[in-house]
């Protein structure tokens, strides 16, 4: 028994010593499996902290994936409905000869819309074993949707989102970085309701699948694949008010998102003990001001995002090095062609306030009503 324990401790020491220097994810997962099998959470935590890009359930990877996919999908739905429900300024009403939906005016029955967002996340922090860790990830998300007016105050619709991403993870002292490639989709029916001239509500439920593949340039390394099921639910209350040519808007939203990862596969073979379920509950509140310029409206906005709950079942996943709260400022412009029923926009957003992460996004959207 003592001899077996001695061999085990020697193995732990060798694996820990090679943790940072061994860059390929297949080797990292081999070490991690040893720690899981022998119930060594401290060593597992160091492995996940040193190489978060190798684990779908790491706090850094899950935050990046959910923010770049699910959050973008929810935001696109809410923006499309806010555009449809938004009450017209006096100038726009005069030009179009229409009333808002809340006033019971004639509105186009159908609305089809689309958005494309490019989300860029960069992380840099010190791991639990005092190694410098750098992660970069870019996710491109395309959302398409269509909705129908049930009544002057109600809209139902459905949307589908497709995402693809690329990135890398590098730990100081490692022989090479790991490259990441991600893709996925989600389908989300949604509902919108005009509460009053100024207030509207939207809600959505989504489900889909995603995957993250990891590879290394190191000779002899094998590819790793992590596949997940996605689920989310979200609700937003939007406020809209015109003061002459100035439009003031506000939004309060709550979302619940899940990513349920199966065991990662190394060269097609499942690695036991690597499955994880990530959960995020987030509250967002923000406001923006725009100025109507007869066909275009530039605007600026500021929002606060608070991760009320972010958990993972990944064995050994340690404390969150990124931070749970952030400010998000945005600059954009919306365009209107009232006679043809086409609206569109372009907005740049940047996140600030998280301790070890920088995030920015560029989004373009278009709505066609008929």
Folded structure, characterized:
With 370 residues, this protein is α+β, with helices and mostly antiparallel strands. The chain has one domain (2-369): Beta Barrel (Lipocalin). The protein contains six helices and 14 strands. It has a twelve-stranded antiparallel β-barrel. Helix 2 runs antiparallel to helix 3 (41-50). The protein is elongated, with a radius of gyration of 23 Å. It starts with a helix and ends with a strand. The relative contact order is 0.17.
- What coarse outline follows from CA principal-axis ratios? elongated
Mean pLDDT: 86
Low-confidence stretches: 1-19, 92-106
What's the architecture, going by CATH?
A: Beta Barrel
What is the topology, as strand order, of the major beta sheet? 1-2-3-4-5-6-7-10-11-12-13-14
Helix content: 10-25%
Helix-strand string: HHHHHHEEEEEEEEEEEEEE
Straight-line distance between termini: 77 Å
Q: How are the secondary structure elements laid out?
A:
Elements (H helix, E strand, L loop, with lengths): L1 H17 L6 H13 L3 H10 L8 H10 L1 H16 L4 H7 L13 E17 L5 E20 L2 E18 L6 E17 L4 E18 L7 E20 L2 E16 L3 E2 L2 E2 L5 E16 L4 E17 L12 E13 L4 E11 L4 E13 L1
Antiparallel strand pairs: 1-2, 1-14, 2-3, 3-4, 4-5, 5-6, 6-7, 6-8, 7-10, 8-9, 10-11, 11-12, 12-13, 13-14
Helix pairs in contact: 2-3
